[in-house]
């Protein structure tokens, strides 16, 4: 049955418009299902300290463009598309394959330090359309893909894989070496049964470190796809019935090359800070002054003084809930800034505690001393009597002699003698003079008395004789 004229001309019209269509922004891709991409460790706050953020319901997010910025980022890859352009792939179908390739490119971060892309075109022959180091920007890549044309008959899938392994995944062609830890990925798209052996060459490619994805369309042989693909097969083998729906597979590869960032989505449950580790993974950290608890999500206040970020000039004192305050050494006072200290004169303030005398030593320090005759006790503040003679309360007329703590006796200057009161003194010469005078008087009286007695005895004797 003949189609209306507009319908008959539609395929040709699409071929003419296709290069322009490739330059249009891609349609919104499908939902993200699996996280396998390495992310940068960006900090995303998860809430104020002490408050656990509300858990967000996991949402589906776009992969690229303004809406998905910060949520999905492709990991750096060395990516080679191996596309079947044999005669069984009609021109419009081949255009669909190129759309599929272009849409995957749209989801990638293209650049010399990011993902590099090459295309291997094959049928009965193999042609490397461009190498990994040919283009370093997305626009040029998509334009190069749009210019690719089909080759001829035949489906030499094994040869195409071998060519990619030996010529496209080389350092000379722009592949990064094993020390770079950049994955090597190949996506082969075919709609038929390989006309050569693929099992052995695919095994060698996988052994060399190439991760193989196999996309089968329409009449593609499923067993051959499984022979080519890496394991697990459920993640590396895809099949669509027609080229008309192959573009939808681009979303599946977005799932492979992109990852949801739980830190951005707010599903991390970190109390303070969420750190993205890549591959859809993350870990929690805490704000300064807090430490991560055993649940690896919540935070507890730590010793802010121990962090040495307190700003206290002299003493930092921890308070509850991760706070602190500053104090000063003895003899210093806290300034108005509540952090620095100024020296105090405790002697002038009267807060020294000295019993007798406070001596200011400067820089906020002091020491105690005692009055004369007292000694400083072990507490360095109080005093005890040491020499009562020194106190001047002894009562000695001449000399006070200390006999130890609180004990003494009096003595006299030379030429003096201590009186009976034990305190006063008398001149020795004057005493002798007085004694001499008294003695002389005593002798005269004695002699006069003796003479008087003798005279009386003589009178008595005379009378006795007369009678």
From TrEMBL:
Among InterPro entries, the record links this protein to:
cEGF, ECM_Assembly_Org, EGF, EGF-like_Ca-bd_dom, Growth_fac_rcpt_cys_sf, Matrilin_CC_sf, Matrilin_CC_trimer, NOTCH1_EGF-like
* Keywords of the record: Coiled coil, Disulfide bond, EGF-like domain, Repeat, Secreted, Signal
Q: Where is the VWFA domain?
A: 78-253
Query: What Gene Ontology molecular function terms does this protein carry?
Result: calcium ion binding
One GO CC term on file: extracellular matrix
Residues annotated as signal peptide = 1-29
Q: Name one Pfam family in it.
A: VWA
Q: Give all residue intervals belonging to the EGF-like domain.
A: 259-300
PROSITE patterns, alphabetized = EGF_2, EGF_3, VWFA
Q: Where in the cell is it found?
A: Secreted
**What does the protein in this record do?**
Major component of the extracellular matrix of cartilage and may play a role in the formation of extracellular filamentous networks.
Q: What is this protein called?
A: Matrilin-3
């Amino acid at each position: 049955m003949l189609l209306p004229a507009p319908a008959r001309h539609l395929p040709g019209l699409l071929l003419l418009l296709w290069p322009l269509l490739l330059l249009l922004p891609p349609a919104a891709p499908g939902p993200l299902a699996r996280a396998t991409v390495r992310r940068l460790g960006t900090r995303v706050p998860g809430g104020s300290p002490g408050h656990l953020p509300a858990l967000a319901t996991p949402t589906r997010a776009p992969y690229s463009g303004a809406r998905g910025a910060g949520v999905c980022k492709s990991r750096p890859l060395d990516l080679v598309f191996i596309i079947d352009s044999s005669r069984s792939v009609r021109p419009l179908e081949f255009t669909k394959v190129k759309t599929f390739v272009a849409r995957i490119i749209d989801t990638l971060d293209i650049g010399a330090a990011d993902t590099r892309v090459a295309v291997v075109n094959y049928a009965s022959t193999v042609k490397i359309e461009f190498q990994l180091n040919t283009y370093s920007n997305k626009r040029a890549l998509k334009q190069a893909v749009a210019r690719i044309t089909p080759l001829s008959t035949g489906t030499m899938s094994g040869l195409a894989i071998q060519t990619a392994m030996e010529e496209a995944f080389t350092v000379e062609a722009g592949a990064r070496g094993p020390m770079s830890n950049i994955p090597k990925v190949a996506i082969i798209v075919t709609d038929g049964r390989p006309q050569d052996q693929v099992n052995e060459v695919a095994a060698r490619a996988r052994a060399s470190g190439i991760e193989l994805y196999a996309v089968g369309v329409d009449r593609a042989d499923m067993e051959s796809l499984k022979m080519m693909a890496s394991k697990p097969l459920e993640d590396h083998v895809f099949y669509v019935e027609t080229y008309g729906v192959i573009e939808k597979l681009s979303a599946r590869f977005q799932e492979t090359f992109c990852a949801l960032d739980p830190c951005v989505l707010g599903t991390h449950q970190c109390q303070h800070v969420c750190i993205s580790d890549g591959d859809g993974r993350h870990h929690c950290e805490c704000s300064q002054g807090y430490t991560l608890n055993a649940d690896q999500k919540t935070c507890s206040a730590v010793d802010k003084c121990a962090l040495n970020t307190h700003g206290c000039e002299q003493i930092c004192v921890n308070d509850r809930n991760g706070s602190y305050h500053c104090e000063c050494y003895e003899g210093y006072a806290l300034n108005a800034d509540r952090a620095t200290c100024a020296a105090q004169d405790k002697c002038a303030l009267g807060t020294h505690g000295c019993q007798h005398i406070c001596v200011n030593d400067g820089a906020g320090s002091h020491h105690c001393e005692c009055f004369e005759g007292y000694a400083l006790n072990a507490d360095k503040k109080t005093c005890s009597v040491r020499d009562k003679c020194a106190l001047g309360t002894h009562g000695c007329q001449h000399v006070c002699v200390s006999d130890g703590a609180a004990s003494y006796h009096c003595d006299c200057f030379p030429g003096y003698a201590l009186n009976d009161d034990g305190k006063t003194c008398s001149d020795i010469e004057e005493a002798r003079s007085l004694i001499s005078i008294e003695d002389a008087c005593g002798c005269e009286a004695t002699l006069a008395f003796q003479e008087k007695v003798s005279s009386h005895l003589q009178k008595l004797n005379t009378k006795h004789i007369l009678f």
